[in-house]
Amino acid sequence: MKKRIMAWLSICLLGMALAMTAFAEGETANTSTESGVSVTIKTDKAEYRAGEEIHFTLLVENAKQHWTLAATDFTYSNSDGIIETFEGSAPTELPEIASGASYELSGVFVGDGEIYVSQGMGTGMIVGIAVGAVVVAAVVVVVLVLLKKKKGNGKNGGGAAGGSKGGSGSKDSSNSKASKKNQKNPEKKMSGNVLAVVLSAVMIVSTLTPAAVQAAPADIEEITVRPYVKVQYAGQEIILRAVINFKASQDLLVIDQEHIRIAQKVTCHDPSIFRDLDGTYYIVGSFLCGATSLNLTDWTSMDSVIQGNFTEEVKAQIREWNLDDRADGWNGYLWAPDIIYNTAMNKYCMYLSANGDDWKSNIVLLTADAFEGPYDYAGTIVYGGFNADDYALTDAPLVTGEEEIPERYVTNGVDNHKWGDMYPNCIDPCVFYDDDGNLWMSYGSWSGGIFMLELDEQTGLRDYTVSYETDIHSDAYFGKKIAGGMYASGEASYIEKIGDYYYLFISYGGLEAARGYNVRVFRSETPDGGYVDALGNDAFFDTYAMNFNMSRGVRLFGGYKWRNFLSGQVAQGHNSAFVDEDGRSYIVFHTRTSNGTEGHYVKVHQLFVNKEGWLVAAPYQTVGESLPQNGLSASQVAGDYEMIIHELEIDYESLETKKPQFITLAEDGTISGDYTGTWTLESGTSYITLSFDGVSYSGVTLEMAVENTDIETVVFTAMGIENQVTIWGSRVYE
Q1: Which of 192, 436, 576, 696 is least crowded, fewest Cβ atoms below 10 Å from its Cβ?
Q2: How far apart (Å, rounded) are the C-alpha atoms in residues 171 and 179?
């Protein structure tokens, strides 16, 4: 009987010990996730005594599809006094981690003996002792009862039988505990081989040198993950933390040489498109550059031909009003011409900006019998930047009926540097016919905004029979204001009738690679406005606004980079647009790249009209694709897609490009992957609607060749109804 009682006592004492260490034995883990990259810190226990080692692991999991994490170093930043057990016991390096892969490391910390001494018991220990005390008390009671029973009932077998039953139950319990404890051992052994913690706190970030915090290269995305875990050490709560700065690069999609098709590119800034009577396509741009094409994809330069067809007399007539001392060469200040064929005059009419200092700019009309020239000077449409001294040299007195310069051009004048507060820089003309055969010209840039004048169809010059009011959005001389103002960015207006609407294209931002050039679109039922965007915003800026990334005007696209591009596309702008004879619409623009240079070239993308009557641009440059007559079926569209979201917020100064995210369009109409939602097709049409994150995107779907290849795939292009953000999708073809 004594043996049984001692066994009971041993079991109960063991239970007390287990209760006292229950909190100390439990693992503690925490996971932090950013942009598909997860880092988990795990310690072998939740509570440690002074001087005890903290064994931890760090697991990095790269679930960012088609992105590779570069090898990186990191720094631990724990609570004060938590240090390496020995030099190198806490690894500080992570290797390159491919998409879908993981890496784990392990390490050991210990508390500094001068800081962490036995300062009392932690919460877990106190609970354990309390539980243990209860167990001991129970044991004492049981022992006393058993001894009393033995003394009082030793002659019968009841006590022995009861002891046997109770002992059996304790044995089962003991086996259960032993089993659980044994199950923990392999886990603890494995966790010791898992990963190590990358720990570095905000304090480390704040000590970085200026060079260390410069913007990442254009094709690198920085992902910062800050995992941490809290444990008890010597009765105190401590934190193990990390700040890991990953540099992620999207995996390039390598195309077999046999499928590569590189278009013949041409350099032409501010390209204006013109389709000649014989079907030949031409573009002409700033500095009188030009090119020709038969397919809108392959271009041949004709700069020397156009520039060589200007006589010295015409050069002098162009610059009679205007001189830009900063320009190189005779054509260095001649910007953004636009060419139409005037059927009443039977002439090719070139409207050319002659830019000058202090807003002293004008737009001239030149005429020729062929697109390439030679061109003759026909007159000036509008003058800008005049003061009291040269007001009489313009046609403003004829238009305004005032021989002396009106006071408004003095109050907001060039002499006090306030011209741009109200009036335009007279550059960037766009000339077009409306549905009724009337001839119009939009023009202007930044400063005072974009204005509109009616032209005389018989002469191509200003229509002096049309008068304009003078108010906040109109001026008797400069015409009707249709957009911009107050130095908000906005230039390169271009107006084209597509379907039921006149669409006004404007380029926001600065034209350099790192200055955020991007095309915005507004629409109107009449050629002179009012123009509004998809959210109902008008195109005016009556007070200054930094509008490069603003949600005013539908942005067709921003900086982006498909996986088969070596460099991203940035600063796309100063476009023209046209509707071809077959009814297809196109946008023509120059684009720069994210390779760190200011090099640029011309691109042409097809435009489509979504169900709501808004323009969306094809994801790739045109190679003659067309919308399927009866649309595509759900089975044809379903599949895995790369999707670019042209978010408005973009770090253009760092040459940021939006890169593909990955979704699956299931045939049952669901979207999964980086975004979840639904999608539908409108039967018998090319219309598609995709809904995710509370936004419905309306657009079209079709098949087209992936840019720079002959690989055909299904694509979609759409605009957010609620946010007017545009998206592109391209079905994965690898």
Answers
A1: 436
A2: 12
Which residue carries 């499928």 as its tokens? Answer: 259
Query: Got the DSSP string for 618-668?
Result: -SS--SS----TT---HHHH-EEEEEEE--S---GGGT--B--EEEEE-TT
Provide the residue type at 254 as one letter. V
Q: Which two tokens stand for residue 65?
A: 């599809």
Q: Tell me the sheet residues that pair with 350.
A: 339, 366
Cβ proximity of 443 and 454 under 8 Å: no
Contact present, 644 and 657 (Cβ < 8 Å): no
Q: Are 554 and 722 in contact (CB under 8 A)?
A: no
- Report pLDDT for 329: 85
Listing DSSP states for 48-70 in one string gives: E-TT-EEEEEEEEEE-STTEEEP
Structural contact between residues 583 and 565, judged by C-beta atoms closer than 8 angstroms:
no
In 304-407 the beta strands, taken as DSSP E runs, fall at: 334-342, 347-354, 362-368, 376-383
**Number of other CB atoms surrounding residue 405 within 10 Å:** 20
Percentage, residues of the chain above pLDDT 70: 82
Helix (H) or strand (E) holding 731: strand 726-731
Whole-angstrom distance, CA of residue 182 vs CA of residue 158: 36
- How far apart CA 500 and CA 508 sit, in angstroms, is 25
| CA separation for the pair 707, 644 (Å, rounded) | 15
Nearest CA to 246 among 109, 30, 64?
64
- 3-state DSSP assignment of residue 314: helix
Q: Which one, of 452, 430, 485, lies nearest residue 270 by Cα?
A: 430
Cα separations (Å) of 178 from 44, 172, 174, 560? 19, 10, 6, 60
Q: Look at residues 392, 389, 336, 397 and name the one whose alpha carbon lies nearest to residue 364.
A: 336
In angstroms, the CA 44 to CA 196 distance is 12
Sequential DSSP letters for 504-565? EEEEESBSSTTTB-EEEEEEESSTT---B-TTS-BSB-SS----TT-SSSEE---SB--TT-
Question: Please, which contacts does 700-704 make with residues 24 or more away whose CB atoms are closer than 8 Å?
Answer: 700/608, 700/610, 700/616, 700/627, 701/631, 701/632, 701/637, 702/618, 702/625, 702/626, 702/627, 702/628, 702/632, 703/625, 703/628, 703/632, 704/618, 704/619, 704/620, 704/623, 704/625
Phi first, then psi: give them for residue 391, nearest 5 degrees: -55, -40
Q: Which residue reads 């629409």 in tokens?
A: 523
Q: For residue range 413-429, what is the model confidence (pLDDT) as tens digits? A: 999 999 999 999 999 99
Q: What is the pLDDT of residues 530-555, one digit of tens each?
A: 999 999 999 999 999 999 999 999 99
Query: Which tens digit of pLDDT belongs to each residue from 555-607?
Result: 999 999 999 999 999 999 999 999 999 999 999 999 999 999 999 999 999 99
Q: How big is the chain by its Cα radius of gyration, in Å?
A: 38
What does each C-alpha distance from 707 to 141, 657, 731, 732 come to in angstroms? Answer: 85, 17, 13, 13
DSSP-based three-state secondary structure for 140: helix
Q: What is the largest CA-CA distance in the chain?
A: 139
